[in-house]
């Protein structure tokens, strides 16, 4: 199913309160009545109402009357429950499971053809709807700006400040605050200036006690006289005017931004998708259109977007300190994370050096291994590196040097130190024209040959264990990793395992090295270390490597390398929360199970003539496209077949990104079975459509 047209969204607001019984219905009803009195076609929605003793009484009935929708209460309130407790507990009591998708459909139905929609929450903003969702989740789902209703009694400041913080933590826009008197005579005169200073939100007005809350004219009159209606409608219209926002942002983007790995000439000539929010595997653009993130926001997301436990850990650390230098100082989050990484890593990796991302983690590894030999054996000739052709290890100079993809690296070869490459174990396109098992792993023998012919020459061999991801999801044959690791050990050449993309469970093991019980000398980590929430990286090394840098101050054996944000507390705290969640949820085992399903779903792709090969390990997979399956002839680069397929799959509501003629399917590890089916189904249909199968 195509996803080309965004849902219609008229201007709308979500009315919540600092508690139950503070006048949300009075404000929501008054707003609806005021707008209707000005000639607008107003829709109202009370997604969940509890404590409904009679079908013709309650908040939903009142809202319907204020909007002139008498007799349409079922449309106004999709969930009406009798028990006077929170929606979650009322649902439990009455056997009703509240579903946000049902609420969204009710909203879209109500919004159709309307000039304005007023949605009223239940209780306070954090009142539970389900075990996972709160009232705030409705506003997030519907992408609505929020009006906060508060009282003018003792405690209003504290209650309002707490609600403001909760709303902001959910990433919601705040229209403003309305004071509402539930009885004659306010107990406290609100300090408007102070509350605006403390919250940064405008006070929209103070609605006095209204005698006739069931009379639309009285409600409209009171609202118009005491509340800034123009400010409310302006804020709602601004939020709803996504075409205007799209135009403004697109002009700014194309005027100032240089995007990574992007031919900007093409970019400047096409519409831009602006991602504004996300929850789970779904992300939403500014028009309200949703997509499934099928490549984990470039292979880093673990638990899905907006994971509340990770967000909570970030807020907790922010309350202490976001960042302080790691040069000459330390911090608890960074130290605790180092201990946890050492516990999880292959045996022997005991020291942790922090940096910012995958490229810098590899840069650290390259410099570390080079300096290691200079200090361990001052007369050593070990000043060269070995790597795989088609390798990609990052974009900094050292990381590029050990990269073997001409598309990314050829332009800089004269800038880079020389590195020797051996052919990648690309069995589908074996450079020697051989096939398993008769080849006897000839590719691994080439590494052995290099090491045999050049004893004492190589400082290190770097490899993405088990699968080369950026090269096109090239999975190595079983035994390749352990064989090349054995050759490195025989020749005392350091083994660098680049687990930036493969680490933290992606392959069905915590680290890909574990598939063949390989113990590297150095290992690089990033991407999934924080579930893709914060930029952060680590390079782990053995004690033997570390000890080579110990010496007197005058000896200058120090590893003179570091970054401004090395050991950043916010990143370390995020990583700790991520690893804790992974363990609690059994994510590695989940990857094994979901990976088997993914493999089964991809098998049918062989029905498409344009599919030449499918490679997978865990939840890392790649579909290689060919012009001719019999000869494995690839589609010419100029035809942009992979790009066209990913553009088509985006219109079907899924985000994927090609690697030339290979389409990786690389979702967050928390992907559900249904989501896997949607992602693979959309990709299948797009391949068929673009290639004419």
Radius of gyration: 30 Å
* Biggest β-sheet strands, sense, barrel: 7 strands, mixed
Query: Which class of secondary structure composition applies to the elements?
Result: alpha/beta
Task: Give the strand tally.
Answer: 24
Helix share, percent = 25-40%
Helical region count? Answer: 25
Unreliable stretches covering 5 or more consecutive residues: none
State the strand order across the main sheet: 12-20-19-18-15-13-14
Shape: elongated
Give the strand content: 15-25%
Overall mean pLDDT: 94
Measured distance between first and last alpha carbons:
18 Å
Please, could you describe this protein's structure?
There is one protein chain. This protein has about 700 residues and is of the alpha/beta class. The longest helix is centred in the middle third of the chain and has 19 residues, at about 360-375. It is elongated and about 95 Å long. It starts with 11 loop residues before the first strand and ends with a helix.
Briefly say what this structure is.
By secondary structure, the chain is of the alpha/beta class.
Strand and helix layout:
Blueprint: E1 12-17, H1 24-37, E2 42-45, E3 48-49, H2 59-66, H3 73-76, E4 79-80, H4 87-94, H5 100-111, E5 116-124, H6 135-142, E6 146-150, H7 156-169, E7 174-180, H8 192-199, E8 203-207, H9 216-226, H10 229-240, H11 242-256, H12 264-267, E9 275-279, E10 282-285, E11 290-293, H13 296-299, H14 308-318, H15 332-344, E12 349-355, H16 358-376, E13 384-388, H17 397-401, H18 406-409, E14 419-422, H19 442-453, E15 458-463, E16 467-468, E17 474-475, H20 480-490, E18 494-498, E19 522-525, E20 537-542, H21 543-547, H22 569-585, H23 587-603, E21 611-617, E22 620-625, H24 641-651, E23 654-655, E24 662-665, H25 673-691
Parallel strand pairs: 1-5, 1-6, 2-5, 3-4, 6-7, 7-8, 11-23, 13-14, 13-15, 15-18, 18-19
Antiparallel strand pairs: 9-10, 10-11, 12-20, 16-17, 19-20, 21-22, 22-24
Helix pairs in contact: 1-2, 1-9, 5-6, 14-22, 15-22, 19-20, 23-25, 24-25
């Amino acid at each position: 199913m195509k996803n080309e047209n965004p849902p219609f969204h008229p201007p709308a607001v979500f009315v919540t309160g600092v508690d139950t019984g503070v006048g949300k219905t009075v404000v929501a009803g008054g707003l609806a009545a005021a707008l209707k009195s000005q000639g607008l076609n107003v829709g109202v929605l009370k997604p969940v109402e509890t404590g409904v003793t009679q079908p013709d009484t309650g908040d939903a009935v009142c809202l319907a009357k204020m909007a002139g929708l008498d007799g349409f209460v079922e449309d106004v309130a999709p969930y009406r429950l009798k028990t006077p407790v929170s929606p979650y507990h009322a649902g439990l009591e009455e056997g009703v499971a509240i579903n946000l998708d049902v609420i969204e459909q009710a909203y879209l139905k109500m919004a159709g053809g309307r000039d304005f929609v007023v949605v009223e929450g239940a209780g306070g903003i954090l009142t539970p709807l389900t075990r996972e969702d709160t009232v705030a989740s409705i506003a997030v789902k519907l992408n609505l700006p929020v009006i906060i209703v508060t009282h003018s009694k003792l405690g209003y400041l504290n209650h309002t400040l707490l609600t403001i913080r909760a709303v902001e933590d959910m990433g919601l826009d705040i229209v403003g605050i309305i004071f509402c008197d539930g009885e004659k005579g306010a107990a406290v005169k609100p300090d408007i200036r102070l509350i605006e200073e403390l919250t940064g939100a405008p006070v929209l007005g103070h609605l006095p006690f209204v005698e006739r809350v069931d009379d639309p004219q009285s409600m409209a009159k009171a609202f118009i006289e005491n509340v800034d209606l123009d400010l409310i409608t302006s804020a709602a219209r601004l939020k709803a005017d996504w075409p205007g926002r799209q135009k403004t942002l697109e002009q700014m983007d194309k005027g100032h931004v240089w995007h990574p790995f992007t031919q900007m000439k093409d970019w400047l000539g096409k519409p831009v998708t602006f991602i504004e929010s996300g929850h789970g595997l779904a992300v939403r653009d500014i028009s309200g259109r949703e997509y499934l993130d099928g490549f984990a926001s470039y292979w880093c997301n673990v638990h899905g977007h907006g994971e509340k436990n990770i967000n909570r850990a970030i807020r907790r650390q922010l309350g202490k300190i976001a960042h302080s230098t790691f040069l000459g100082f330390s911090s608890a989050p960074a130290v605790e994370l180092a201990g946890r990484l050492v516990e999880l890593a292959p045996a022997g990796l005991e020291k942790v050096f922090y940096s910012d991302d995958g490229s810098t983690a590899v840069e650290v590894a390259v410099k570390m291994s080079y300096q290691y030999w200079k200090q361990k054996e001052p007369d050593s000739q070990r000043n060269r590196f070995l790597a795989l052709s088609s390798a990609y290890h990052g974009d900094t100079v050292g990381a590029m040097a050990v990269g073997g993809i001409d598309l990314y690296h050829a332009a800089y070869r004269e800038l880079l130190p020389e590195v020797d490459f051996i052919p990648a174990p690309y069995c589908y396109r074996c450079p020697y024209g051989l096939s398993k098992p008769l080849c006897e792993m000839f590719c691994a023998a080439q590494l052995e040959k290099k090491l045999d012919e050049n004893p004492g020459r190589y400082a290190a061999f770097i490899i993405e264990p088990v699968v080369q991801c950026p090269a096109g999801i090239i999975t190595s044959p079983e035994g390749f990793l352990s064989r090349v690791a054995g050759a490195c050990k025989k020749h005392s050449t350091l083994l660098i395992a680049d687990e930036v993309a493969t680490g933290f469970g992606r392959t069905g093991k915590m680290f890909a090295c574990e598939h063949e019980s390989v113990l590297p000398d150095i290992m690089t980590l990033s991407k999934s270390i924080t579930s893709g929430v914060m930029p952060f990286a680590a390079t782990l090394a053995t004690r033997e490597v570390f000890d080579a840098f110990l010496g007197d101050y005058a000896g200058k054996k120090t590893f003179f390398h570091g970054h401004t944000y090395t050991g950043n507390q916010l990143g370390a705290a995020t990583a700790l929360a991520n690893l804790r969640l992974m363990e609690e949820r059994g994510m590695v085992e989940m990857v094994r199970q979901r990976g088997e399903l993914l493999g089964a779903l991809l098998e049918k792709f062989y029905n498409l003539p344009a599919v030449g090969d499918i490679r997978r390990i865990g939840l890392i997979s790649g579909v290689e496209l060919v012009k001719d399956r019999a000869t494995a002839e690839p589609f010419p680069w100029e035809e942009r077949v992979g790009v066209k397929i990913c553009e088509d799959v985006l219109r079907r509501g899924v985000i994927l990104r090609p690697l030339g003629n290979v389409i990786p399917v690389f979702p967050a590890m928390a992907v559900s079975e249904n989501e896997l089916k949607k992602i693979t189904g959309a990709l299948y249909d797009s391949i068929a459509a673009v290639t004419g199968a």
